[in-house]
Every structure is written in C-alpha cells, then in structure tokens.
Write a structure and sequence with these properties.
Blueprint: E1 19-23, E2 30-38, E3 41-44, H1 46-53, E4 67-71, E5 81-92, E6 107-115, E7 136-139, E8 150-157, E9 162-165, E10 181-184, E11 189-198, E12 213-218, H2 219-228, H3 243-268, H4 271-284, H5 298-307, H6 311-319, H7 327-340, H8 351-367, H9 371-379, H10 399-407, H11 425-436, H12 440-457, H13 461-475, E13 484-490, E14 500-507, E15 513-524, H14 526-539, E16 549-553, H15 579-582, E17 584-588, H16 590-593, H17 599-608, E18 615-618, H18 624-633, E19 641-644, H19 648-660, E20 665-669, H20 693-706, E21 714-718
Parallel strand pairs: 13-16, 16-17, 18-19, 19-20
Antiparallel strand pairs: 1-2, 1-4, 2-3, 3-6, 4-5, 5-6, 7-8, 7-10, 8-9, 9-12, 10-11, 11-12, 13-14, 14-15, 20-21
Length: 742
C-alpha cells in the first residue's frame, strides 16, 4: 500500500503514549520498559521483572503474586502505580530448557502486569501490526526521555525472533530498553517488543565484530506466546493459541478485503471520484495523500478499509449523500458496511461522528455522572451492560471506553420495516440520553447526530422515530422512592483474609435486577467494595429521592462481618462514609435459607404477616437451638421478626435456625459478648413498626460511630420479597482454586 502514507509528523503519534517504565523494587532505578495493552493490562519481559526484583536475569522461576511499581512517561514522574503480575512466560531455550547466562537469544520471556484501575489519559494503547523484514523501527528507554530513541532496521525475521541493526549514530538499544515497543514509523504502529542486544566480545573492537545489533520479538511471536497462557488481548487471534488459528484469522481478514473490492468498484469505479473520496478519507484518518491528483487502486482502498480503525464508516459518511437517491448504490454501500462488521477495525462510527459524540457525552457526564448509565439501563433492559457501564457514576474520562464497547452491539431486537438495518444499540442509548437531557439545545444536537448516523447506515426513519418515542415515554416516568441495590459477596478458600469477591445489581423500577458491576474476578478489600457500592447506589436513578437500600448477600461465615463500618470515602473526601451511615444496609444469607425445602414458602408466609406478628426474643432462656426450632414450628409459626441476644457462640447457634426456617427479619448486636449485653439495642425500638426498622438501625449506627462509648453494633437480616435475588450460575475460576469457604 503506497498511496496512503503516514501523517507528516509521526513524532506526535508514536508509542510513547503507551510506554511503561518498570521500576526496581526499591524504586531506585529503571529495571526496564513495557507497553500498555488495553484496559488495565501491561506487557513487558519476564527478565525485566527478574531485574526489578534483584533476581538472576534469565531465571525461569515464576516469582508469584508480586506487585511492582510502574509509571507512564507521558504522565508525571511522580505518578507511580502498583501493578500485579498476572501472567508469566519464563525465558526458555529452543529445547524448552533453562537459558544459560551469556546466551545471545532465547524464547518466551514475557510477563503481563495488571493495574488496579485503567490509566488516565493521555495514556492510550497502540495500534499493532505484524512485523515484516525491512521495517524501520524505533525504541525508547523505559524512562521515555525523548532523546533516548534508538532507530534500527528489521534485518531478519523468521517468525520467531527478529534481528535489529542500528546505524552508528544516535542512541543504541541498551539496558532499560527491554520490554518496550518497537514502533514502525512508516506504518504508525507497534510491530514487536525489544528483548536484548548482541554485544561485541571483550577486548579490542575490530571490523569483524557485530556492532549495534539487538533483537526482539515480532507481534506475531508475542501474540502466539500470550495466547498459549490465555493472556492475549481482546480482539486478537487466539483460539487455543495456535499458529494455525492466527493464520486462519489472517486469511479470513484477507478474504473480507477481497470481497470489498466488488462494491468499491461499483461505488468508486471512476478514478476521479475515488481520488476525491480517498483524499477526504486520508485527511480524516490523519494520513498523507499525494497532491498530484492520482487515485489509489481499489485494492489499496480495500486494504485500508479492512485494517484501519474507523476507515470504512468514514468513507461511508462521504458516500452516503451520493447514493441517497440511488437504490443500487445504497445496496452496494449496505453490502460494504456489512462486510465491515466482519472486521475488527471498521467500528460503527466515523472519525467525525465518534469525535462529536464523545465530546457531547463528556460534557453531559460532567454535569450528571449517572446519566449515561441510567439511559443505557433503560435502553438495553434485557442484556448485561458492557463492563464500562457497570459503574453507575461515570467520569468524563470514561466516556470513550463506553462508546467503544457500545459500538460492538450492532442491533437491537425490535422489528424494522422492509428488511432495513436494525438500529444499533449505541444509537438507542443516545436517544435515551437525549430524552433525559434537560437542555433543549443539547437534546436537539444529540438527536440530529443520531439522525445523521441512522441515515448513513440506511436505517428506516420509522425505526428511529419508534425508538425515540420509547425514550420520550421513559423520560416521563415516575422515579422510585429510593434506590435499591443488591450485592453478593463470596470468597475462595485461597483468597486473602478479609478479602471478598463482589457483584452488584441495581433494581429497575419494575423490580427486575440489572447488573451494575461485577468485581468477582479478584478478591477486594472492604474499602474497595464500599467504594463500589457507594458509586452504584449514589449514581443510580432516584439517588436523591431517599435513602438507598443496600441488601448484601453474604456467605454463612460472614454474618458477623462489620460491613456497615466499611468506609467508602475517597482519599480526597473530608468526611468518612461508613456504609451503615448512608444506606439502609441489610444482610441476607441465601446459602443458609436454601438448606430447607420449605424455605421459600416459609419466607413468603412470614413476610406477609410481618405487620401482625410480634417480635420473638431469642436469648439464653429460649432453650438453645432445639427450643427455637420448636417455637418457630408451633406458637410462632408466622413470626417474621426475631431479636437474638447473647454471646457470639449463642448467636452462631440460633442465627442459622432463623434463616433456614424463613424468618425474614433478624436483629442482633454483633458486639455483644454475653446474655446481658442486649439492652443497648432498646434505643432503636426493635419491637416498633417493622418497616421503619432499617431507618432506625441507620440512625443508631450514625450515633454509635460518632460516640464510641455506645458499645452496640446492630446487624440486621432483611429478606424483602420485593428484592429478588438474581438467579445466576456462579462459576469458580480454576486459576484461583475451586474451593470456596463455607
């Protein structure tokens, strides 16, 4: 491909936006470099990790669950972030043995690190292309200093490792470059990783010695290694990590590009028209186009459309007016867009459409952080939201990731006329955002934007009007009195003490649960979970209309957990924010309740009589476990509320009885150490109106946290039938072990 060239000043868009500095364990030096992949993942060399830890450079031994400090040179040098080792591919010889010191080359030698959260802009992932012999590449020292670039040429590449030859001027690849990206200036993409250098032997330098030769791994090699350990980035060819799959994927992409040639000939067979549209396309993509009036070949144009992000919708944007009154041309454009959906690069929006939408949504999100999540939940009610939308409150910086994920959802399930394209999920969400937007000008701008995109995609006007009407009806809804949030905590046997895996759902106005966040991929501290709950409950629809109810399902051994004291305040907040102060924080334990065949029926019967039944006091006089069972089966068969008093051992005996027999409301003082410690709970009127109990418990907690002389710490099980538990299959991650705590 020669007609489309790189931008005139590629230095403004090189790999330094994704360059990572890996620091030594003592932060005293740069151990090496790395590259930002996507999300929270970073890629570097295993020997860089060894160097950072002060170990033998080519040691194959996995250092385990270690955390290192990293930084991004495009940010402040003081912005040091912790990164956990999550994938390890040890250095190995070609015979899969250990690598001897002094070896000139080896295989493997990769490591993947994971941050606690996505890095902030301007950190951004690079575009990756396959390595080819003859490419001019550039590498940087891990510190990212602009003057540290080292230029080289790919002299040889056999599909395994590549050899890089540098000129005798400027910088050379040296220590601290390993793990960094090899950037092809001509292609505007990364094509591999720096691995090491080949140095001349000790003694006097002669003309026969190898000078300024280094080596690395091409992207094909890197991807193959990552796929074998299940760490290949999303969207990359991985199926079982095999070379055959990668080749098949490449062949499929080539086939798609070949199929694009036909509709391109029909639409742009005239070289002059092709030159005009290609010139506009190059300008939008920040590529360089010849100024001699020539046109790219149709094959060159197809190659660009199949491999360059947003190239196809950008071309379609300029072609749409041309085919507006030409049914045959419209059919060819639709065919071209359909082929684009088979590629990774096409995306849904053009460069201009994407830029306009992100700008509008960032502005709206800055003033209403919950707007985008509310609109997406309503617009897509029967699907799990993308990961980027699982937080109810979004910062403007999160908008690009949200748009990117929603672009992958190509159509909704509603019928459309005349076999026209379905309305993409992103446009449906935009319509709901517009309906919820207070300003007439902002609403009109969003609707004009979605109208233009719908026209470009060939969507029937009636389909867009119908979805717009749905959004308008939703915007006129009556908000619920307060937010209701469901939380599930669980843990594996090997998880650190005090850490839990967490999933969160918001209840829609119709009572059905919508997944708001899934954080079960790794164990979290109480503070992390509290922040997540605050984020979801505080940003959900109706958050300002009352105190949110947060129902937390816990494992049987966590009923005494001090969840209400978990502080979700951010580091910059002046006032602490224990969950028990801000929310009606109540407990559930479905694992215990499900141990009874009649549990659901018992729970329904008792809950429906909660206003008529009296409170049962279960203290040391009740006769223990057998005595409580007898009462709940006879004279207290419809009792909905039990107040448990006594020591930890006494409560551990009686609480499971209450739950397994379907008692929906159970109150106790988890700080009580004996039978005489239950009186402080009298201040919250445990025998008063049952529906006001969560609010009375919240008031009590606020006073208790402010006055440490108050010894009681109330805990409340609240099994509201109006809070259905999501019926989901929970699968264990084999890498974490299959045993969960009881």
């Amino acid at each position: 491909m020669t007609w489309f060239g790189p931008a005139d000043d590629p230095a403004d868009k090189d790999a330094r936006g994704a360059l990572v500095r890996v620091l030594s364990a003592d932060r005293g030096r740069t151990a090496g470099a790395g590259v930002y992949l996507l999300g929270r993942r970073l890629l570097t060399c295993a020997h860089v990790i060894n160097a950072a830890l002060g170990l033998r450079s080519l040691s194959p031994h996995n250092p385990g669950k270690i955390t290192l400090d990293v930084s991004f040179p495009v940010l402040s040098a003081a912005d040091v972030l912790p990164a956990r080792l999550v994938a390890w591919i040890p250095p190995r010889s070609s015979q899969y043995g250990p690598v001897a010191d002094g070896s000139l080359e080896w295989d493997g030698d990769l490591a993947v690190l994971e941050l606690d959260e996505d890095p902030p802009p301007p950190v951004s992932p690079v575009r990756w292309l396959e390595m080819e012999r003859g490419q001019q590449v550039r590498a940087w020292y891990g510190g990212g200093q602009p003057f540290s670039y080292a230029d080289a040429r790919v002299g040889a590449y056999d599909g395994r490792i590549c050899y890089l030859d540098g000129q005798l001027s400027g910088a050379a690849v040296d220590e601290g470059y390993s793990g960094g990206p090899l950037w092809s200036v001509a292609d505007g993409a990364a094509v591999g990783l720096v691995m090491g250098r080949i140095t001349a032997p000790d003694g006097a330098l002669s003309a026969q010695h190898t000078v300024r030769r280094s080596w690395g791994l091409g992207w094909q090699s890197v991807l193959r290694e990552l796929a074998q350990v299940g760490a290949a980035p999303d969207g990359a060819a991985r199926a079982n990590g095999s070379r055959e799959r990668s080749a098949a994927t490449l062949a499929e992409a080539e086939s798609v590009r070949d199929m694009m040639v036909g509709p391109l000939h029909s639409l742009l067979g005239d070289p002059r028209a092709r030159a005009d549209h290609a010139t506009v396309l190059a300008a939008q993509l920040a590529l360089r186009a010849p100024a001699d009036g020539s046109a790219p070949t149709v094959e060159e144009l197809a190659h660009l459309l199949g491999g360059t992000e947003r190239a196809l919708p950008t071309l379609a944007e300029s072609l749409a007016p041309k085919v507006a009154d030409d049914p045959r041309g419209r059919a060819e454009l639709d065919r071209l867009l359909a082929l684009g959906r088979l590629t990774e690069a096409a995306r849904l929006l053009s460069v201009a459409e994407h830029r306009a939408l992100v700008s509008k949504l960032e502005h709206l999100t800055e003033h209403d952080p919950g707007l985008l999540s509310r609109a997406a939940t309503a617009a897509l009610p029967y699907v799990d939201l993308p990961r980027s939308l699982q937080a109810a409150r979004l910062a403007p910086a999160a908008v690009p990731a949200v748009v990117r994920e929603l672009e992958n959802w190509h159509g909704d399930g509603s019928p459309v006329p005349d076999e026209t394209p379905r309305l993409p999920a992103l446009l449906r969400v935009v319509e709901y955002v517009a309906a919820e937007t207070s300003g007439d000008l902002a609403r009109q701008a969003l609707r004009e934007w979605s109208g233009r995109v719908a026209t470009r995609l060939g969507i029937h006007a009636s389909a867009l009007r119908e979805r717009r009407g749905d959004a308008d009806r939703w915007s006129r809804r009556t908000a619920p009195a307060a937010v209701r949030v469901l939380v599930e905590l669980d843990r594996y046997a090997k998880d650190p003490v005090g850490h839990y895996r967490c999933s969160v759902w918001r209840l829609r106005p119709d009572g059905t649960p919508a997944r708001a966040a899934t954080e079960s991929d790794r164990p979290r501290t109480g503070r992390e979970i509290a922040r997540l709950i605050r984020e979801v409950a505080g940003g959900a629809e109706g958050a300002g209309d009352g105190v949110a109810l947060v129902a937390v399902s816990v494992p049987p051994d966590a009923l005494e957990l001090a969840l209400d004291e978990w502080d979700g305040a951010g580091a910059d907040e002046y006032i602490s924010a224990p969950l028990g102060e801000d929310f009606h924080l109540v407990l559930r334990c479905p694992k215990i309740r499900r141990r009874s065949r009649t549990g659901p029926a018992d729970l329904k019967r008792r809950w429906n009589t909660r206003h008529q039944s009296d409170t049962l006091l279960a203290d040391h006089r009740i006769g223990g476990r057998a005595g409580l069972i007898g009462l709940l089966k006879t004279t207290h068969r419809d009792t909905a509320r039990v107040l448990v008093q006594g020591s930890t051992e006494h409560r551990g005996e009686l609480l499971p009885v209450c739950l397994v027999m379907g008692v929906p409301v159970v109150l106790w003082d988890r700080a009580a150490s004996g039978p005489d410690d239950g009186h402080p709970l009298d201040d919250l009127a445990p025998h008063g109106p049952v529906d006001g109990l969560p609010e009375r418990v919240r008031h009590f907690r606020v006073r208790a946290y402010a006055d440490r002389a108050v010894p009681a710490r109330p805990a409340l099980v609240w099994e509201d039938l109006g809070l259905p538990l999501p019926d989901e299959l929970q699968l264990a991650d084999p890498s974490e072990g299959t045993e969960r705590t009881a």
